[in-house]
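Ticket #4471: structure output looks truncated?

Reporter: J.K.
Steps to reproduce: submitted the chain below (65 residues) through the standard prediction queue, then opened the result file.
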Amino acid sequence: MNARNDLKKLSDPRLDARLVLAAARLRFAARVDFLVARWLARCATNAEAAQQLLRTVQKPPANSG
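Returned output as attached by the reporter:
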């Protein structure tokens, strides 16, 4: 009995390296998109909070006359 018959193959020979790389690129791009979207949402929240703060701080002066 040959030892090579007892060993399981670590990779499927039907898998094309280009397809595996393309799938990895898609997963990476999806992750980057998610992180950028989350960062932009935080920036928008901070900008809205700053606008609210400026509206309350800079009230127009009362008319005197």
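Triage note (M.O.): checked the attachment and the full token line is present. The chain has one helix and no strands.
Status: closed, working as intended.
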